[in-house]
Specification:
The chain is built from 7 helices and 4 strands; from the N terminus they run αααβαβαββαα. The protein has helices spanning 2-18, 37-46, 52-63, 79-94, 112-132, 183-194, 202-205; strands at 67-69, 98-105, 140-147, 164-172.
Amino acid sequence: MNRRFFMLGGAGLVLAACDGPNAREAGLALDEGGFGNPTMHNTLVQTGRINIAEIMTRRFEAEVPAMVNFAFDSATLDAEAQRVLRHQAHWMKQFPELRFRIFGHTDLVGSAAYNQRLGQRRADAARRYLMQQGVPSDSIIATVSRGQSQPLIVTQGRERANRRTVTEIAGAIRRHPTVMNGEYARIVHREYVASAAPAPTMSESSL
């Protein structure tokens, strides 16, 4: 009895030793633990009741700051704006299936016509910077000026929050009108494979 207990205990220790901090099961990070939810989700995608753009829009909004701000009467990207756009570019390059639009906005100071042009300059500046970071030109299908028509804070004075560009997902490449065309499957597969990579050590994560 003691010998059997000792052997079982030793086997348990061996198994526990295999479960180190860098041992990760493939797909672990993608399993939210909800019974039946992945199947239901896949069914909705494949039947067209949820499309890839909707799914990825929710992710983009949760993972990436979509807005950058500008100085008064300027379309120049400051250091903070460039930092945000680099974050956007990193995310966008991971999903070449997606297409994006950039909207330029202004505050309410100045004429509507001038602000319409200024909003376009801001949107174009953001697009150029994203392309400099390696985002393919065909990933950004449009830059659009909304001028002073959609302020976040309604005031006739200068307001930095209103002087902004906003990046949004416009859609995704689709080759079939009703069913999933494999693009979302490729995204899921890439993330599934990446989830099996060893977790970074403390020294690696601090670099």
